[in-house]
Amino acid sequence: MRMFCLRFIVYALLVAGLSGCMVAVRQQQSARQQADVHYKLGLSQLESNNPTRALRELLIAVRNGPNDSAIHAALAEAYQLKKAYPQAERHYLQAIKLSKGDPRYENNLASLYLDMQQWDKAISYFDKAGSNLLFLNSHVALTGKSYAYFKKGDYPAALRQIEDVIAIAPRYARAYYIQSEVYQALGQEDKARQSLNRAVAVAPDFIPAIYQLGLMLQQDKQLTAAREKFKQVVELAPDSEWGLKAAALLRALPEAAADKN
């Protein structure tokens, strides 16, 4: 009888233990499902340019998936769009830690440091991302590094870096655009124009370069050519910031003005 009781107690404990484990597993599965659902909803809101709603969804997601690097990165992006930079920084760093140094998150953190005007930190993280051989978009990170040097006022370093980018990605239009900004800051207008023309040559619909060429033509009193550039910007992206600025400049230009000879 005593042996039977002992066996019964052991059996009961085993059943209770297994039951508790099953409950814990179900809870974990439910949390993962909730994290995934709200993460996807958050991404959808980010794609719709609604960072406030994205933030609501992603805060739920991170509570249910605190060890998911992708959720932390998306939450950081939402905070960045809301200009809540300290919170964005914290979650980007957590995403990097959890992913063991994913270069995508290092690149995103570097872009945050650009927003925060912390140029040296931006340079450091762009360099980490750009030097990672597994990062498919290393040229993007290295272009960001050049831009950080430019904003820091180190124009020679910015030019050296952007020349390296152009060597590995000669059809990346933004590299030529950054190069033109540096040349303009140095007062080298002809070189700046050449860089903008190269940007448009490799990407005919690259709006920032078209708009900037329009400004340079306007400054040179080549108003007919400037008008054509601004019209092109409006046609390509009428509701964008570039399109709205180009439309305003078109309205301000005299309708029939003679170009400088």
Features:
261 residues, mainly alpha, 13 helices, 79% helix
Give the structure's gist in a few sentences.
By secondary structure, the chain is an all-alpha fold. It is built from 13 helices and no strands.
Broad shape:
globular
Q: How would a crystallographer describe the biggest sheet? A: none
Residue stretches low in confidence (pLDDT < 50, at least 5 long) are none
What integer is the average pLDDT? 90
Description:
The chain has 261 residues and is mainly alpha-helical. 79% of the residues lie in helices and 0% in strands. The protein is built from 13 helices and no strands. It has helices at 2-47, 51-64, 69-81, 85-98, 103-115, 119-130, 138-152, 155-168, 173-185, 189-202, 207-219, 223-236, 241-252. Helix 2 (51-64) runs antiparallel to helix 3 and helix 11 packs antiparallel against helix 12. 36% of the residues are buried. The mean pLDDT is 90.
Give the topology, please.
Layout: H1 2-47, H2 51-64, H3 69-81, H4 85-98, H5 103-115, H6 119-130, H7 138-152, H8 155-168, H9 173-185, H10 189-202, H11 207-219, H12 223-236, H13 241-252
Helix pairs in contact: 1-2, 1-3, 2-3, 3-4, 4-5, 5-6, 6-7, 7-8, 7-9, 8-9, 9-10, 10-11, 11-12, 12-13
